[in-house]
Amino acid sequence: IMGSFFNTILIQPLLNTLVFLYEYASFQDLGIAIILLTIVIRVILYPLFYKSLHNQSMMQKIQPEIEKIRHEHKENKEKQAQVLMELYRTHKVNPFMGFLLILIQLPILISLYHVILKGFSPESFSNLYSFITAPTELNHSLLGLIDLQQSSIVIVGLAAILQYFQGKLALPKKDASGQESPAAKVGRQMVFIGPILTLLILNSLPGAVGLYWATTSAFSIVQQIIVNKTLSKEYGSHT
C-alpha cells in the first residue's frame, strides 16, 4: 500500500513531468529535460530551502553564544536548555530545521533517483497519464555529446567541483581570534569529504543521476549566495 501511495504521489508526477519536458521543452534531449525537471523541483521547494539555509547561517553566526551558554551552565542542563531556547527564540532560528528539511526532501530525492535510474523504458511508460504521450524516439544524451545511460567522468567531476564551491559558500568566517567551534571544524572537513564521496558514489551510477546532482548543487550555490547577501544586509557582515 505504501509503495502504491509513494508511486502515485511522487514517482508518477515526476515521470510525467520529465516526459512532458522531454517532448515539449528540451528539443527531445534527455539531459536538458533532467536539468529542467531539477530546476522545477528546486523552484517549488525554494521557500523551504531558503528558510533552511537562512536558519543554518544564523545558527553558525550565534555559535559562539551557544558555546558560551553551554560552558556557563554545564552543571545545570535544565537551565542550559532554557537559556538556549531563549537564544533561539531571540534570533528566530530552529535547531531542528536541517533535520526537518532532510525528512521532507528525502522522499522526493528517492523518487527522482527512481525516475532517472529507470530512464525511458516500456515499464516506466506504463506510469504515464492518459494525456501524456510516450516519446516515439529516445535520445539518452546531453546535447548529443554524453550518453546519460553510462557513467560520465565529465559530469562526475563537474558535480564534485560544484559541491565543493557549495560547501565553501556555506562556511562561516572565522572570528577575530581565529577560533572555530567544533561544528565549524567539521563543516570545513566536509567541504573536502563531500566532493570525494560524490566522486566515489557517482562514478558507478548513470550520467543522468550525476547530471541531476550537478544541477541541484549549482542551484544550491545560487541560493547560498542570495542568503549570504541577505544576511549581510540584515546584520552588516557576511556569514
Mind explaining what this structure looks like?
By secondary structure, the protein is mainly alpha-helical. It is about 70% helix and about 0% strand. The protein has helices at about 1-25, 30-45, 45-60, 65-70, 75-90, 95-120, 120-125, 155-170, 180-200, 205-235; strands at about 140, 145. A two-stranded antiparallel ribbon has the order 1-2. The termini are far apart.
Write the layout of secondary structure elements.
Blueprint: H1 2-24, H2 30-44, H3 46-61, H4 63-72, H5 77-91, H6 97-118, H7 122-125, E1 141-142, E2 146-147, H8 153-170, H9 182-202, H10 207-235
Antiparallel strand pairs: 1-2
Features:
single chain; 239 residues; mainly alpha; two-stranded antiparallel ribbon; 2 strands
Question: Brief overview, please?
Answer:
The chain is an all-alpha fold and 239 residues long.
Question: How many whole angstroms does the radius of gyration measure?
Answer: 21 Å
Number of strands: 2
Q: How much of the residues is beta strand, in percent?
A: under 5%
**Overall pLDDT level:** 80
Share of helix, binned: over 70%
Uncertain runs: none
Q: List the helices and strands in order.
A: HHHHHHHEEHHH
